[in-house]
Amino acid sequence: MLSEQQVREVAEMYQGEVYGEAFYCALLPLFDAPVQKHLIGSLLQLETENKARMRQIVFEHGGDIVESEESRNQGRNFIRDVENMSWTEATAYMVVASVEFQDRYREIVKTAPDALKPVYNYMIEHEDLIIAAMRLASQGEDEKAIDLVADQLMLPLPRPAAA
Ligand SMILES: [Fe+2]
Question: What number does CATH give the domain 4-150?
């Protein structure tokens, strides 16, 4: 059985995906190019799928699966940091933000019970994927970034039909 703190840590990762979803939803209206929308939409899809995965784990361990409004608001508020940036600047900035999330997860995994280590290592890899995709986008490689994310999705977003 997990300690109260360990249950809180699992729930924190779940809420991190709630934050991520709210962030990418708020980011979508800021960038208009089709590849930018496709990448942001794919990252939104990634957060949704990962949230569903984490929901199983949180529930299994008796944690709270209610999606917190506070996490959503924090995700939306993070937009203020990037709303006046170019795509290149914003994606580079998001690399740094994702590294911060990853550092926190690396901290949590140190004291995690063995049963949860694979889950937490998966979360660290999840941040690695976002970091790699944002880095590619910041280097002008949006298509490669989309492919990288889409490869990991159960439900990848199709390329929109040409108008
Ligand atoms: Fe995430």
Answer: 1.20.1260
In the reported structure, the alpha carbon of residue 163 is separated from the centroid of ligand 1 by a whole-number distance in angstroms of 32
Q: What's the pLDDT at 163?
A: 63
| Count of helix runs (H) and strand runs (E) in the chain | 7, 0
* CA proximity to 129, closest of 112, 146, 114: 146
CA 20 / ligand 1 centre spacing (Å): 5
For residue 161, report the distance from its CA to the centre of ligand 1, in Å: 28
Distance (angstroms) between ligand 1 centre and the Cα of 14 equals 8
Taking 70 as the pLDDT cut, the residues of the chain under it are 163
Q: Which residues of 87-101 are buried (b: 16+ CB within 10 A; e: fewer)?
A: beebbbbbbebbeeb
Cα–Cα distance for residue pair 24/92, rounded to 1 Å = 15
Helix (H, G, I), strand (E, B) or coil at 33: coil
